[in-house]
Amino acid sequence: MANVTRQYVTENNYYEVIKHAQEFLEKYFRNKIVSYTFKRYKQNEILDIEFKNAGFAHLVGLEYIGIYPKYFWKDLKNDRINWQKVKFTNDNDSGTSPKEYFEMKMEALKFIDLLITKDARICDGCLFSNSYVDKVLRTKEDILGIGLKLLANDKHVMSTTRLLSAEEDIKSGSAVISITAYDKVTREKIIYYNRQSIGEAS
User: What's the pTM?
Assistant: First the structure.
């Protein structure tokens, strides 16, 4: 696995993409249970997602060598990343190099904001980035997909990211009816999206 430099991620604007992804997840997912309500086989289902700091490095396609993964989140937030310890992950099945695959992830993550809008979709489990995931949270267009793994508490955790393409065997998924969050700190319920409240057709 090749080393990643601060110069490389900065000059290509990837550092900005990673920081934005962190800010998005901090605001909308961290310390929350985010619930996606969607229709499947004419029945409403709810998918609960929890975000773990320790999974963030892998989510963006990087590995913090010799350091606990959770510290990548903390060090990025404080702008103290030890870039000598950062390498590309090698979890893809696309035939591309780890660097190329990381760059594909960066292109996909530019659209992370769509995951709490009407453009979010939920797909059934499938082979995703060389491993099986239980669900996929994706954009309506073939851009961003995030694999989700089911935990013992019946919540799903974000596992890995990939750039989708029309050629891949990942279904378009079910449209979301609503997206809400339960803040585990304040115990508040937050509405991110509700199809009925904005008068969309069902």
Answer: 0.91
